[in-house]
Amino acid sequence: MEHGKINIRQLTILVIVFTIGTSILLAPTQTVQEAKQDAWMAVTLGMVFDLILIVMYSALGKQFPGLTLAQYSEKILGKWLGKLISILFFSFFFYLSAIMVRDLGNFIVTNVLPETPIEVVLISFSIVIVIATRYGLEVIARTIEIFFPWIMIFLVFLMIALLPEIEINNIKPLFERGIRPLLSSGLQFSSLQEFVCFLMLLPFVNRPEKVSRSLLVGASVGGIILILITALCVLVIGIDFTERNIYPSFVLAKKINIANFVERLEVLLAGAWFLSIFTKTAITFYISALALSQTLELRSYKPLTWPLGLIMVVLSIVAYPNVTRVLEFAPKVWFSYAYFYMLFLPLVLLLVYMICKKKR
Q1: CA 316: distance to chain centroid?
Q2: Which residues pair with 257 in a beta bridge?
Q3: Does the predicted model carry a pTM greater than 0.85?
Q4: I need a surface site. Which of 75, 237, 258, 341 has the fewest CB within 10 A?
Q5: Mean pLDDT of 310-338
Q6: DSSP of 168-214, one letter per residue?
Q7: What is the C-alpha separation between 123 and 309, in angstroms, rounded?
Q8: Which residues, 6 or more positions from 73, have their beta carbon under 8 angstroms from its beta carbon?
Q9: Which of the 8 DSSP states describes residue 344?
Q10: Please, which residues have CB within 8 angstroms of residue 75's CB and are 6 or more apart in sequence?
């Protein structure tokens, strides 16, 4: 089979790493800007919203075992309207993959290779993503399964090493700004976890009956990591520095100093982030190619990968012309855009299916 099968453990690992994604570096800034010292609670609320969405996705996916989101959209809404919805989902997945590529490019050029043209980074990373996608889902899952223990070891070590740097007063007072900023910031955060993507992967899991639990466990573990990282940003470097810095958790890792001997360990966080953003980009690009191929009724998604890879590079350059646009885009535009695909369209598909089922 072209796509291969993945097991439940691999699905859980993919969800965990997908959850970490870009959020481990970017989310603390956006959350702290509105929720201030209560940012960790806003992240917690955001993950609760996402878990509720996962329950809805699981209910939808269970109705069509063996079919992807692109395939059963046509079964629910008819051929032409279903294809339109599939194309819309393709555009969302593909745009998401382009954003991931640009996020990595911005980080590399800002913190690692400031003299390197960003286009070189974008093209290089995109080539890796296209090659990984052509090998298929099973290879991507096995690769991340190998690296996953190292990601967790790096993150746990960083968290433990930062414990002596904690200033507990940074997190006080609780609920200073009331519940509204918490809810607003939590919803904004939840829009960064696009678990709707996994509706394209569920048919390729070898034990469908355990998919729902796997998604919930993976999202919960990834969410706990993000809650801890956000809390540490507030506790160690404070809310002022966190909301003024684009990559506060990277700065956070620079604070590690063990006996004036072990320091400059931010490379560990960067390594964990590179692997997590590779995972998220590979998944979103893979399901983009898959959704488009199924909508166009092609035999294989592979002929689409190189053309889409080229377009992804161009789109990543156009999407975020500068860093200022990045900071404006997430809170002002992304929330409404993402929730259209994460909540509205899946809910419409589920409701239409249930109504049609009752009429039969």
Answers
A1: 16
A2: 263
A3: yes
A4: 258
A5: 79
A6: GGGGPSTTTT-HHHHHHHHHHHHTT--GGGGGGTGGGBS-GGGHHHH
A7: 9
A8: 82, 83, 85, 86, 89, 349
A9: I
A10: 64, 67, 82
